[in-house]
Design goal:
Blueprint: E1 13-17, E2 21-27, H1 34-41, H2 56-67, E3 72-79, E4 82-90, E5 107-114, H3 126-141, E6 146-149, H4 156-164, E7 168-175, E8 178-179, E9 184-185, E10 188-196, H5 197-200
Parallel strand pairs: 5-6
Antiparallel strand pairs: 1-2, 2-3, 3-4, 4-5, 6-10, 7-10, 8-9
């Protein structure tokens, strides 16, 4: 059997979620996973992800650029081997969000994109369970003290989801435009929210 891609597909975190199954997190492969991610970000529901209108190859290029960074990482979450969500982590000091709030030692930023409902994301309690898996990986697995998220202030569903998960709302801020050769991000009004490790995993 050809196992040349086995290391790239090895899970960095595995967790069984009662009532749903086994959830595994693995590094996203920019090329092999491009079609899956492209299908997700092309839907109107993913407009706030900022990649609507990109081609499959452009999605692959975007994540190849991300994969080359030491400060930003992308992971594909799988439920019993089926892709169900995209998790991105980043160092706030190496991201534009670090320009608009006081970064604390042990902070880590995350972006979360859930798969469309027909790919396993619509069962009651599923999004909360998946967010719990992500919290376990980021706060315990990576030994971080606090998670910061910066959803678009207009993305009320995402903001509400984070607050239900125990995040505390921070200020509404304006993230500056990023215009670099490899990446362009327009200015964004964002609702910051924070989740401390002791809130989810009391000592």
């Amino acid at each position: 059997m050809d196992d040349r891609h086995a290391p790239a597909h090895a899970y960095v975190h595995e967790q069984t979620v009662e009532g749903f199954g086994a959830v595994g997190l693995r590094p996203l492969d920019p090329e092999e996973d491009a079609a899956t991610v492209h299908a997700w970000v092309s839907e109107e529901r993913a407009a706030f992800w900022g990649m609507t209108g990109l081609t499959r190859d452009q999605v692959a290029e975007t994540y190849a650029h991300l994969d080359a960074l030491d400060t930003h990482h992308a992971f594909l979450a799988e439920l019993d081997g089926v892709p169900v969500a995209l998790l991105q982590t980043y160092e706030p000091t190496a991201d534009r969000v670090g320009e608009v709030y006081d970064v604390e030692t042990g902070d880590i930023g995350v972006h979360v994109l859930l798969a469309p409902a027909d790919e396993g994301g619509a069962r009651p309690g599923w999004s909360a369970a998946l967010m719990g898996v992500f919290a376990s990986y980021v706060l315990l697995g990576l030994d971080r003290r606090r998670v910061v998220v910066d959803p678009d202030v207009r993305n009320t569903k995402a903001v509400a989801r984070f607050l239900r998960q125990g995040f505390e709302a921070g200020p509404v801020v304006t993230l500056p435009e990023v215009d670099l050769p490899d990446v362009y991000l327009p200015e964004k009004r964002a609702q910051l929210a924070f989740l401390r490790r002791e809130t989810v995993f009391p000592a």
